[in-house]
């Protein structure tokens, strides 16, 4: 037996269930707790703030049973207890609900049996009718009186209270139950719904052989009103978070490593602001994800740890408390408490404490004796006393870092008697005022704000060391710290470095309240703005970098002020030194930068500062599989924020060169990362239409040809592809669909007759269709059975989350109203939303309105979206528009037939015709009104298309014809013409229509050429035969001889040939000549048989060779060559038309909304593999031609020189501020060896950066100058024109 197997057996043996312990549970808000003693069946509750004032409750005053009678004794597997948040009753008193569940072995069995018991949902207390079973029972009661019982048991958890609703969740191996209570006077209106467990959770429970392990898994699965399901069946590890209120999958977390042991359930932890989600899926590794989009933001490998057993965010979500088991010198394992400072770079940012005092209970009784909620952690100690773990002295000392001792020795500077006539005042590190004349050589930087025109602004400096190498400078809007040192030990020349910068974004000068200085430390309190600045910082460099990034924005805002050359150089050096601080931090602490970006919006500051160099550095870190920037829509406080890419787009409107480049950086970064997880595109979805407003539509084209829009496969198991999305062997299309994302409700409801009939018809059709498909080729069925055949099914996902989801607060659904139905009957339907209110539309509709180019639809993802939305739109228009046109055409046809037949309008025919005429004109009014509404909504330019014009003519011309008919005049127009275009609603006919139209577009120039040649030959013969008498040319007249058999008399008959009649001589008229020349193509040459003239024969032979043999065959060959291109163009044209029709369907007024599928977060699609292979080849070719992408790639792939030389060893900023500088990569033990570079390398790099920025500025100046010159020229031309 291997060591691993022994270890797993040891784990199972350690976890034998013992129910003799007292249970504890916290309310979801962490304000109340309850304990339950199994031996005495006693329940006590208490407020957390009064932890020692436990109150025993007796909730069974009206009950015939007690908790003791719930006990199944030898069949009892365990107990579970939960307490709700405190709620206000009708009588203004406060109360809690408590749930106690005793579950039997069959409730938590790995082979559960169905337990169907009729539920008493009306609060009947006659619970004697509920027989005890090995499934168990759950009792719910208030702390004061009311008592209820339900005949199923399991792990119980209360959810956070709604305004007037309390929800209890009971979960076991059979399913999950949601018991809801409406808060009213009697507390008796319970509703109970049963849900099926997700298939992945059922599979995991079946694999666990130990009952207590299944209880632990179920208990840990419900955390913070979420149900977490881990799916190991796919190639990646997927964690799905179901929101228990909506029952939907709210977030998906994706991992790339293999399944861990089922013997250890995963450990989860939520930050209190619900921004971060930490979980441990391996025995010694922690990963932190952003709850907003599921992307990973940090990870940590704990070396030497056997397993992680508990985690909780503490100290305002700045730290993560971790409890682990580690090997000890004995055979047992020691329990260790760890604290990870997430936002710190200090040497003790990860601290450990061996739990020798048993502050935390043993892992095997965690579910019984430990409870945590909303930042509160309670435990039952060995003496059965309740203990607040975070208030324990040892834990408090571990979490809270002691303030730096250096601040206690600072000297307070007296600022009251400062001479206001002096602009620069300097102090020593002992607080003594110094004469600036005596220390002129020691001053490192006397003018730290070069954008101020004169040096006559008040500033205070202080040396922070005895050697006077460190200088603090407090100016009008900045606080800076500079350091100076010798470049070379043998040289007297010195060089200064910026080590700290803070800037005020207010327009008024900063006001000092107090200042204390010491050796390499200071404390500054400002009254304007109200802030305290302490250095060194308790979090290492985190505060320094946050302030440096904010300072870049301030420095950028000062760039436009006039500065002479010497001041400009100081400004450039200050800007470059700030860059160096940030670049140095990124190189050494990439993982901390990633978390800081989420909390402090660092990327937003870089974008506002237009700092493309640092943006490039942050984003290019991804090439090392270390992503420093994460897209977000929420601030750290969970408030909505303007996304980083939206800020870049707004900047591009003001400065297209810099802003457009930043947008390109971000789009390239997001789309490349989306190959692994499409949540990287979560902020791109909403900004795609805004790119057109900023005139950055080129990036749309580049983005839509990225691999994530068609080349990324998604592996799913245990799913069923909808019937409409099944790909047939001969299919050339892509099918879009959504997967179920809700917990399946098992409450039995009898289907209606219509539902049963529909199900039967669909089942029959599906059986017939599937019988004709060769499933062995992998065309249909489970995605997990894919083969390497050309016709395999491939499951992919549209890389734009929430692409078809409307903005929050906008509901496109229409409830049926009879008044609305009457309005739509008598008035042409209008539009719910106006095009000017784009914020009402979902991103998909906004994109359709913004762009009509074919490339928008030339990718599998967009085709999938259109296919997904098309079914509802097509069904609606078949029932409405198509139906109206058919009735309209039938009425027109009947009236035309009645007129042609001269039908007498008497009797019943008279009444029938009156009804039909009335209906005809009503439909004409309706159809014409619809067209006018479209014209008003879309505008003339967008409305003007051949299809809309055809609809308009079909609405107007037949009504005009009928009016003429009624007026005893006749003129016929085909009222059925629109039926041909309506065939576009059906896929096969629509494809042929668009193929025909595209072929005609392709061959139209050649047809015009043939027509010109044909007209030329027709004109040549017309000139000869129009007036043959002028050249004494007579036609060949046919003569016939007839002999009478009775009289034997012969008669000669000569044909009458009129050379001026087009019937005899088609070349007597020019138009008839062209018509006759056209029929040459079919072999009809009337001029050969009627005229004997050599010139006519020559023209005919040449025309036959050129038109019939050469050009006609060229036309056939050309049509064959353009057919494939026409098919592709027809596909794009069809998709474009469908997209426009989907837009019409979404925004028009409807009496009902046929919503068979809600708009999902993710849209999946399938198709033949050859479709994706062809698109991949095409997209590669397209990407080669994108010049902007080449420019971005060139910058992204530029060698990133290390900037550590900005901080020489003897003056390293880490050493100066008492911090530990150790560059590390997660998961690697070796530290990177820092190498000192030559100073000229840095100078060269700085020159390159400055040169790039100067080139951009020069280009902007030239464009501005050109614009001015053009305006001057235009004015001169206008004056000259006026003088003339």
From TrEMBL:
Residue spans crossing the bilayer: 882-900, 906-928, 949-970, 976-997, 1004-1025, 1093-1111
Sample GO molecular function, one term: monoatomic ion channel activity
GO biological process: calcium ion import across plasma membrane
Keyword Amino-acid biosynthesis appears in the UniProt entry: no
Alphabetical UniProt keywords: Coiled coil, Membrane, Repeat, Transmembrane, Transmembrane helix
Key word Transmembrane helix present: yes
Coiled-coil residues: 1242-1269
Domain of life: Eukaryota
Entry-linked InterPro entries: Quinoprotein_ADH-like_sf, TRPV
GO cellular component: plasma membrane
PANTHER family: INACTIVE, TRANSIENT RECEPTOR POTENTIAL ION CHANNEL PROTEIN
Record protein name field: Ion transport domain-containing protein
């Amino acid at each position: 037996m291997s060591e691993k197997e022994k270890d797993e057996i040891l784990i199972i043996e350690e976890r034998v269930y013992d129910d003799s312990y007292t249970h504890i549970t916290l309310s979801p808000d962490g304000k109340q707790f309850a304990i339950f003693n199994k031996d005495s069946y006693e329940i006590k509750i208490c407020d957390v703030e009064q932890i020692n004032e436990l109150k025993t409750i007796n909730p069974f005053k009206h009950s015939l049973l007690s908790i003791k009678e719930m006990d199944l004794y030898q069949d009892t597997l365990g107990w579970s207890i939960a307490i709700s948040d405190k709620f206000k009753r009708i009588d203004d008193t406060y109360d809690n609900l408590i749930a106690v569940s005793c579950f039997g072995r069959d409730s938590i069995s790995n082979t559960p049996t169905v337990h169907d018991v009729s539920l008493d949902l009306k609060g009947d207390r006659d619970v004697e009718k509920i027989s005890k079973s090995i499934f168990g029972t759950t009792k719910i009661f208030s702390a004061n009186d009311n008592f209820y019982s339900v005949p199923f048991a399991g792990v119980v958890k209360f959810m956070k209270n709604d305004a007037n609703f309390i929800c209890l969740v009971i979960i076991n191996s059979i399913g999950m139950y949601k018991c809801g209570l409406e808060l009213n006077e009697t507390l008796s209106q319970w509703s109970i719904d049963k849900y099926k467990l997700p298939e992945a959770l059922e599979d995991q429970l079946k694999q666990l052989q130990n009952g207590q392990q299944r209880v632990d898994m179920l208990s840990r699965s419900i955390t913070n009103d979420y149900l977490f399901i881990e799916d190991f069946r796919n190639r990646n590890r997927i964690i799905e978070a179901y929101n228990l209120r909506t029952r939907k999958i709210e977030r998906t977390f994706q991992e790339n490593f293999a399944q861990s042991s089922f013997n250890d359930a995963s450990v989860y932890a939520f930050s209190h602001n619900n921004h971060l989600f930490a979980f441990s899926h391996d025995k010694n590794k922690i990963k932190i994800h952003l709850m907003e989009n599921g992307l990973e933001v940090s990870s940590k490998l704990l070396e030497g740890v056997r397993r992680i057993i508990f985690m909780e965010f503490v100290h305002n979500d700045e730290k993560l408390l971790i409890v682990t088991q580690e090997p000890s010198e004995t055979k047992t394992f020691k329990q260790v408490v760890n604290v990870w400072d997430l936002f710190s770079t200090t040497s003790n940012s990860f601290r450990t404490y061996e739990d020798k005092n048993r502050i935390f209970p043993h892992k095997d009784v965690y579910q019984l004796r430990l409870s945590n909620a909303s930042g509160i952690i309670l435990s039952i100690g060995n003496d059965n006393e309740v203990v607040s773990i975070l208030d324990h002295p040892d834990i408090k000392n571990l979490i809270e870092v002691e303030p730096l001792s250096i601040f206690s020795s600072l000297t307070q500077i007296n600022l009251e008697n400062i001479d206001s006539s002096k602009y620069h005042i300097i102090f020593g590190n002992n607080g003594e005022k110094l004469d600036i004349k005596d220390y002129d050589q020691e001053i490192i930087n006397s003018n730290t704000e070069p954008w101020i025109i004169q040096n006559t602004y008040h500033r205070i400096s202080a040396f922070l060391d005895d050697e006077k190498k460190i200088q603090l400078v407090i100016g009008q809007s900045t606080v800076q710290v500079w350091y100076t040192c010798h470049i070379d030990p043998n040289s007297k020349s010195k060089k200064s470095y910026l080590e700290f910068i803070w800037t005020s974004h207010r327009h008024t000068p900063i006001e000092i309240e107090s200042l204390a200085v010491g050796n390499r430390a200071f404390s500054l309190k400002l009254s304007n703005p109200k802030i305290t600045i302490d250095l060194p910082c308790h979090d290492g460099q985190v505060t320094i970098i946050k302030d440096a990034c904010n300072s870049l924005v301030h420095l950028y805002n000062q760039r436009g002020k006039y500065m002479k050359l010497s001041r400009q150089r100081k400004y450039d050096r200050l800007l470059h030194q700030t860059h160096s601080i940030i670049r140095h931090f990124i190189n050494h602490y990439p993982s901390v930068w990633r978390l800081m970006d989420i909390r402090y919006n660092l990327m937003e500051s870089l974008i506002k500062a237009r700092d493309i160099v640092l943006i490039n550095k942050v984003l290019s870190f991804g090439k090392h599989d270390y992503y420093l920037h994460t897209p977000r829509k929420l601030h750290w406080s969970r408030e909505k924020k303007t996304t980083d890419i939206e800020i870049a787009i707004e900047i591009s409107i003001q400065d297209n060169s810099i802003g457009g480049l930043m947008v390109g950086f971000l789009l390239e970064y997001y789309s490349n990362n989306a190959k692994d997880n499409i949540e990287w595109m979560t902020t791109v979805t909403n900004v795609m239409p805004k790119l057109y407003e900023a005139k950055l539509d080129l990036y749309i084209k580049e983005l839509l040809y990225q691999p994530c829009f068609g080349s990324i496969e998604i592996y799913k198991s245990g799913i069923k592809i909808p019937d409409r999305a099944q790909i047939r062997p001969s299919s050339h299309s892509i099918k879009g669909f959504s997967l179920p994302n809700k917990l399946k409700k098992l409450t039995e409801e009898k289907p209606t007759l219509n539902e049963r009939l529909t199900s039967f018809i669909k089942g029959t059709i599906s059986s017939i269709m599937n019988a004709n498909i060769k499933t062995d080729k992998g065309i249909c069925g489970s995605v997990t059975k894919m083969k390497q055949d050309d016709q395999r099914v491939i499951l992919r996902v549209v890389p734009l989350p929430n692409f078809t989801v409307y903005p929050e607060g906008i509901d496109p659904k229409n409830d049926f109203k009879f008044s609305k139905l009457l309005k739509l009957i008598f008035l042409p339907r209008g539009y719910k939303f106006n095009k000017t209110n784009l914020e009402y539309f979902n991103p998909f509709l906004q994109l359709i309105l913004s762009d009509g180019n074919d490339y928008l639809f030339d990718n599998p993802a967009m085709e999938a979206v259109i296919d997904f939305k098309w079914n509802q739109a097509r069904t609606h228009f078949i029932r409405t528009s198509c139906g109206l046109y058919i009735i309209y055409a039938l009425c027109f046809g009947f009236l035309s037939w009645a007129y042609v037949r001269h039908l007498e309008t008497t009797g019943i025919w008279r009444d029938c015709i009156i009804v039909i005429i009335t209906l005809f004109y009503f439909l004409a009014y309706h159809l014409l009104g619809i067209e006018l509404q479209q014209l008003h909504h879309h505008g003339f330019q967008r409305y003007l298309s051949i299809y809309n014009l055809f609809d308009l003519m079909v609405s107007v011309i037949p009504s005009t014809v009928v009016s003429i008919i009624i007026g005893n005049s006749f003129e016929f127009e085909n009222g059925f013409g629109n039926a041909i275009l309506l065939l576009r609603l059906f896929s096969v006919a629509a494809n042929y229509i668009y193929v025909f139209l595209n072929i005609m577009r392709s061959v139209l120039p050649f047809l015009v050429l043939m027509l010109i040649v044909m007209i030329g030959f027709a004109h040549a013969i017309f000139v000869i035969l129009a007036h043959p008498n002028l050249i004494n040319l007579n036609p060949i007249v046919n003569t016939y001889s007839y002999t009478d058999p009775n009289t034997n008399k012969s008669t000669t008959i000569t044909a009458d040939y009129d050379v001026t009649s087009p019937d005899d001589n088609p070349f007597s008229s020019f138009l008839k000549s062209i018509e006759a020349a056209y029929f040459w193509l079919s072999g009809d040459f009337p001029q050969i048989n009627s005229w004997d003239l050599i010139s006519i024969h020559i023209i005919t032979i040449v025309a036959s060779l050129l038109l019939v043999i050469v050009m006609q065959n060229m036309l056939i060959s050309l049509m064959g060559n353009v057919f494939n291109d026409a098919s592709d163009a027809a596909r794009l044209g069809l998709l474009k038309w469908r997209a426009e029709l989907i837009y019409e369907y979404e925004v028009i007024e409807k009496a009902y909304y046929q919503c068979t599928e809600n708009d999902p977060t993710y849209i999946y699609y399938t198709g033949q593999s050859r479709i994706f292979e062809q698109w991949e080849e095409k997209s590669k070719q397209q990407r080669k031609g994108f010049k902007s992408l080449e420019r971005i790639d060139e910058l992204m792939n530029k060698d990133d020189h290390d900037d550590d030389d900005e901080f020489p060893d003897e003056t390293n900023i880490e050493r100066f501020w008492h911090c530990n500088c150790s560059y590390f990569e997660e998961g690697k033990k070796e530290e990177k060896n820092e190498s000192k570079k030559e100073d000229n390398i840095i100078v060269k790099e700085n020159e390159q950066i400055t040169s790039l920025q100067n080139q951009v500025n020069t280009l902007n100046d030239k464009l501005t100058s050109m614009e001015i010159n053009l305006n001057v020229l235009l004015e001169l031309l206008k004056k000259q024109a006026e003088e003339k």
